[in-house]
Amino acid sequence: MKHLVKYLAALLLLFCNAAIAQPEKVEMADVMRSEGKIYVVVAIILVVLAGLIAYLFLLDKKLSKMEKLLHERQQTKS
C-alpha cells in the first residue's frame, strides 16, 4: 500500500510539473493559421485517416470472407 501511495504521489507531481511548464501562447499554430497552412495540415491528416479507415474496412471484408470459407470447409469435412 505504501508503494502505491508513493507511485501515485510521484505521478501527480509529474503531471503538475508538466501543467505548470505549459507556455501561454502556441506561436506555431497562430502562424500556420494566419498563413492558411493549418488547412493543409488538417487535410493531410484527414486523408491519412480516411486511408486507414478504408484499409481496415477492406481488411475486415477479406477476413470475413476467409473465415466464412474456413467455416464451410470445416463443416464439409465433418
Topology at a glance:
Layout: H1 2-20, H2 27-35, H3 37-77
Signal peptide: 1-21
Protein name: CcmD family protein
Transmembrane segments: 37-58
Question: Keyphrases for this structure?
Answer:
78 residues; mainly alpha; 88% helix; 0% strand; flat
Outline of the structure:
The chain is mainly α.
Word description of this protein:
The structure is a single chain. With 78 residues, the chain is an all-alpha fold. It has one domain. 88% of the residues lie in helices and 0% in strands. It has three helices and no strands. The protein has helices at residues 2-20, 27-35, 37-77. It is flat. The N and C termini lie far apart (55 Å). Keywords: Membrane, Signal, Transmembrane, Transmembrane helix. The chain crosses the membrane at residues 37-58.
* Biggest sheet details: none
- Count up the domains: 1
Unreliable stretches, pLDDT < 50, 5 or more residues? none
Q: How many helical elements?
A: 3
Question: Total strand count, please?
Answer: 0
Distance between the termini: 55 Å
Radius of gyration: 25 Å
Oligomer: single chain
Order of helices and strands: HHH
Q: Considering DSSP H and I runs of 4 or more, what fraction of the residues is helical?
A: over 70%
